[in-house]
Write a structure and sequence with these properties.
The chain is 46% helix and 8% strand. The protein is an alpha+beta fold. The longest helix has 32 residues. InterPro entries: Ecd.
């Protein structure tokens, strides 16, 4: 939670904090009435309606793994109800939130609901094999919403760049454009939340446990506090273990009682699967005796309560907690401690100043109240009169079967099988599309295909690329590469020296000389240097001289024999008595067919792949062209 700096604050503004890994965030944006009701009163009324609807889906006794589903009103940046749920190791809570919000959007079609977690738009991840190719993580912000019981994705046709939140909400509320996601995407999300919220209720586990009397009293009045106790036990550290070693708050008198405790399956697994030695002050039967498992489970719950209570009480008094730690991290990232050794007097001075500023903020009081709320609740419950007689003499239900804890292989294999089938279906559809495109082309790689390859490659080469790298043009005209010819000539002259006139006697190359033998040293004979001429003539002369010199060097190699030249009428040089030198000159003057050579290189490269993936097939595939495997034979 960010703290707006005051004008007198010595600290820089906080940097945005990263999203916690085990938390889902949600925001509900209503279509506000044009006039009459104020946004504040409208949000308050909406809040009450939502709570009423959710209570019909989940009983009040439902136990969330870590945090319950809560909503808070806010007017910035736009009027909304928002909240977050930490689901920890229990992903069922995250998908339960999705199910509840989707049901809420079905009830009220004027609500646009947005969700995200540390992975971003996790709904898109669930439907990854059904998404259009353009919907990348960079394009997804403010595009995915729940509305009217459906998934909505604002298409690229309505906004090339990711829209702002206000723009996205305006598009959804107008209802003039089709923003409903495709049926495959809808099906992927619906199959993931199928069975909720009933599935979440079935995920509860009730077990007998022998608890100290104060712990049994707390759970009798506030069963949901079991989640904080399990969290305190599971996330214990050295300092909290010291609290459990004394058991000052929850073992007064040493009386214990067997009671049924309800928790999620994830909580039960976190308690049972961890080895933990009981504190010396805690009464425990010997291992193997009757009731040992009930006593061991109760001991872990009691230690969790003791650790949670002590930690919350201390953090509440200090008002620190996770909010203070986040504030301190933001100061470190902004450079407040740059060059300062941790633990030094200067470091402590900065921390003390930050703490003083933090204590004056409204966040401090809110954090203190939030951290101390469970402590106040426990103190209030334990202040009531209670005795062991309140729990004895009652028929206790048997513990639920926990075979699911040891027989999860079938469920795991089912999930893996579903994912494997999803991947296979995706690959099948992909191969079918590729086969369809391949059949749509001619069985022969004809002239039209040659032309398509050449044109596509030319468009690819001429396409100006961004910093993200070269991209194949998507059937749209690309701007030609922008080259300043005049500056290019000047740069070349600075390296090679001034340009000779082609008719200057000293500029003629001697017989058998090459461009590497040309001497452009102006110090030899300044009078031999041609007078400056017009820019156009200079450019033409330079290019001709450069081309002639380059061709003369290349003629000494076999490179020219590797190119396919433009088809001409065959000439019988021997019959006409034309000398060999003239024949070579005629071949030299025959232009190279660039397009044919380009396609020939592609086909040769494709043939050398021998049906395996390779650069030629990959590049041609990106350009939407499929070369038949028999193309090289034809």
């Amino acid at each position: 939670m960010s703290i707006p700096p005051s004008s007198s604050s010595p600290f820089p503004p906080q940097q945005p904090l990263s999203t916690p890994e085990d938390t889902v965030f949600y925001s509900i944006y209503p279509d506000l009435p044009s006039s009459g009701t104020s946004p504040t009163s409208f949000l308050h009324s909406l809040h009450l309606r939502i709570l009423s609807h959710l209570s019909s889906l989940l009983p009040p006794t439902f136990i969330w793994h870590r945090d319950p589903f809560l909503l808070s009103p806010s007017l910035s940046p736009v009027p909304r109800l928002h909240g977050h749920v930490r689901f920890g190791d229990n992903l069922d809570d995250e998908w339960l939130v999705v199910s509840l919000l989707l049901s809420l959007s079905s009830l009220d079609h004027s609500l646009s609901i947005q969700l995200h977690d540390s992975d971003g738009d996790f709904l898109l991840i669930e439907a990854a094999y059904r998404l259009p190719r353009w919907l990348s993580p960079d394009q997804s912000p403010n595009r995915v919403f729940l509305r009217g019981g459906r998934i909505h994705i604002i298409p690229k046709t309505l906004s090339q760049d990711p829209p702002s939140l206000e723009q996205a909400l305006a598009i959804l509320s107008a209802g003039k454009s089709n923003t409903v996601a495709s049926e495959p995407i809808q099906s992927a999300i619906e199959s993931r939340i199928a069975g909720y919220p009933e599935r979440a209720l079935a995920n509860m586990h009730t077990v007998r446990a022998r608890l100290p009397l104060p712990v049994a009293q707390v759970l009798k009045h506030e069963p949901s506090l079991i989640s904080l106790a399990v969290q305190g036990f599971y996330d214990r550290d050295v300092d909290s273990m010291k609290l459990a070693a004394k058991m000052e708050r929850f073992l007064a008198g040493g009386e214990t009682v067997v009671v049924p405790v309800t928790m999620s399956r994830a909580m039960y697994a976190q308690l049972v699967r961890q080895k933990f030695a009981a504190p010396r002050c805690y009464p425990m039967p010997a291992a193997g005796e009757a009731g040992f498992e009930e006593a061991e489970l109760g001991m872990k719950i009691a230690c969790g309560f003791e650790m949670m209570y002590g930690e919350r009480k201390r953090e509440g008094e200090e008002g620190k907690g996770e909010t203070w730690e986040a504030f301190l991290r933001s100061l470190e990232s902004s450079g407040c401690f740059q060059g300062v050794l941790p633990g030094s007097s200067e470091y402590r001075r900065i921390v003390d100043g930050a703490m003083e500023y933090y204590r004056k903020s409204s966040t401090f009081s809110r954090t203190r109240d939030m951290l101390s709320a469970p402590v106040r609740k426990i103190d209030e419950i334990l202040s009531l009169e209670y005795s062991i007689n309140d729990f004895e003499g009652k028929d206790l239900p048997p513990s639920d079967n926990d075979s699911w804890l040891y027989e999860g292989e079938d469920e795991l294999n089912s999930v893996i099988s579903d994912r494997q089938k999803e991947m296979e279906d995706y690959e099948f559809e992909r191969s079918k599309q590729q086969k369809s495109r391949k059949q749509s082309t001619s069985n022969k790689f004809g002239a039209n295909n040659f032309k398509a390859v050449a044109e596509s490659m030319q468009a690819f080469v001429q396409k100006l690329s961004s910093f993200e790298g070269a991209e194949v043009p998507e059937n749209r005209n690309s701007s030609a590469v922008d080259v300043d010819v005049g500056q290019f000539i000047k740069d070349m002259e600075s390296v090679l020296g001034p340009i000779y006139h082609e008719n200057h006697p000293d500029a003629e190359l001697e017989e058998g000389s090459t461009s590497s033998e040309m001497d452009f040293d102006a110090s030899e004979n300044e009078s031999d240097i041609a007078e400056p001429c017009a820019d156009d003539d200079t450019e033409d002369n330079f290019m001709e001289s450069y081309s002639d010199a380059l061709n003369e060097e290349l003629n000494a190699t076999t490179l020219n024999k590797s190119f396919v030249r433009v088809s001409q009428q065959p000439c019988n040089y021997e019959d006409e008595g034309m000398p060999t030198a003239s024949k070579d000159m005629s071949e030299e003057l025959t232009p190279v067919d660039v397009d044919v050579n380009l396609v020939k290189s592609f086909v040769d490269s494709f043939s050398s792949q021998q049906g395996l993936p390779g650069p030629a097939s990959n590049l041609l595939g990106l350009m939407g062209l499929k070369v038949p495997h028999s193309a090289n034979k034809e």
